[in-house]
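ok trying again, last paste got cut off:
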Amino acid sequence: MVIAGTFPNILLNETSVGFDREEKQQELGQFFTPECIANFMASLFRAQWRELNLLDAGAGTGALSAALIQRICSARHKPKRISVTAYEVDSSVIEKLRETLDECGRACERVGIPYSATVLNQDFIEAAIPMLRRDLFSSQSPVFNAAIANPPYRKIRSDSNSRLLLRSAGIETSNLYTAFLALITRLLAPDAELVAITPRSFCNGPYFKPFRVDFIQTMALQRLHVFNSRSAAFSKDKVLQENIILHATKTAVKPQDLVVSSSSGEAESEIKERSVAYSDVISPKDLNQFIHLISDESHVPARSVMNSLSASLKDLGLSVSTGRVVDFRAKSSLRQQPEKGTAPLIYPCHFNGGFVHWPKEKCRKPNAIVSDEQTKSLLVPTGIYVLVKRFTSKEERRRVVACIFDPTKIPGPLVGFENHLNYFHLEGRGLAMSLAKGLAAFLNSSVLDNYFRQFNGHTQVNATDLRSLNYPTRAQLERIGSKVNVGADQQTLDEHVQKELNG
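nice, full thing came through this time. structure:
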C-alpha cells in the first residue's frame, strides 16, 4: 500500500545558528537537523504519555525536543508532566539550547503542562557509561520513556577513551552514532519509544554486526524511513551519506508488519509508505541480521527472485576475498608500467566492457607490482577471476559492478588485485570461463542490484555482503555464461538472467 503525504513545517531551524560549523562538524561529527525533518520525526511517536521523561542525546540547539514538545502542546491528550534531559558536548551551542528549552517551558506553561529541563554540557558517552555500570559515585540511572536523537557521525579510534568506555559496558562499535544508539536503548524503560535519524550504514556489513544484533534483540522496529537522495536531507551541510529515520520500541515482541517509507528529504516532499512483513525486513534465518529496506514496489519482485535462489557460495565451491595489495603500504614495490620482474596490478580503473583491460596508458594508478619474496603474499596465481568494485561512485548505474580477469589477455604467472577490489576464486585459484561469465552476468543484473540496494545504503560493497547473497546453481550460472555476452547492454543481460532464474 502506498500513502502520499508531506513533511509539515516547524518553527525552529538548527541550520540558522550563527557560527562557523564546518570545523566543529569535522571534530564532533555534528550535523544539525533540518526543520522539516525534525517535525516529521516528532510525528512518529505513538504513545500518549501520562508523564513524559525525554532523553535528547547530542541535542545541538534543541530542535528535535522542541519539535516533539510543540506537537504535544497542540495535541488533544496531554501528559501531566514533561521532563527533558539534553546532553550536548559543544559549548558553543549550549546557550542556544537553553533558550530553546526555556521556550519549550513557556509553551508548556501556556497549555498547563508542568515542565522541567536539564541541560548537560557533557560528553554523552562519558556521562552514560558510569550510570550503566552503576559506578559507586555515579548518579542513579534515569529511566526515560522516550528518546529522540540525531547522534554524531564519526569513527571511533580503537584505542580511544570512548572505545574503552564502551567496551567496559559491553558495547562494541566503531562509530559514534551507533554508540549513542546503543547507550540510549540501555537507558530506556521497557516499552519506551526511540526515534532517530542516522546514517544507513549500520543496516549491513561486518563492522556494525555486534551493534545490529544487539539493537534488533533489544528493540522492535516500528517504522523505517529512507531518503531517496543522498544529499537532500542535509543539503546545507553537503552530507552525501545515505540516511534513514527509525522508530523503535523497547520490547522483545516484534510486530507482524512495519512501515517502510521513503521521500527525497526535501521540505514538502512526497512521502510514500508501504506495510512490509517484519521477517522481510529482518530475516530470522539471517545470522548477519541485515536490515532490508523494501521501500519501492520494484524491490518486491527482486527480493522474491533472490529468496528463491538455492545456492550459497559454499555450495558453489567458491569464495570471495578482498584484494591484498594496499598500495600505500606497498609503495616501494609499485611500478607505473610493467617491466621485467613485475606482475600485473589490477585496479577498478582497468574495468572496461566486462573484462579487465591492462595495462592502461595515461593512468594515475600503477599498472604493475614487483614480484619477489617481499610481495609474494600479496599476489595470487593467474587464472580467470570475477572482480567486483568495493566502492562505486554515486553516479554509477549499478551498486555492484563486476568484471572478468582473463589471463589469456594478460600474461604472467601471478597477478595482484588492489584492495579496492573483491575477487571470486576457487580455493585461491581461478574459475572456468563459463562459470565466470555466468557469475559476472548475475552480479551485473538489475535484479541483483535492486535487491542489494535494499540492505546496502552506501557505496561500499564488502566481501561479507557478497557472501550473504543467495546465488543461482552452478548449472544455472554456466547456462547464463554460455548464452550472454559479458559486455552486453543492460537490457539484453537482464533478459538472459531473468529467463534462467524464472525457469
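cool. The chain has 16 helices and 20 strands. The mean pLDDT is 87.
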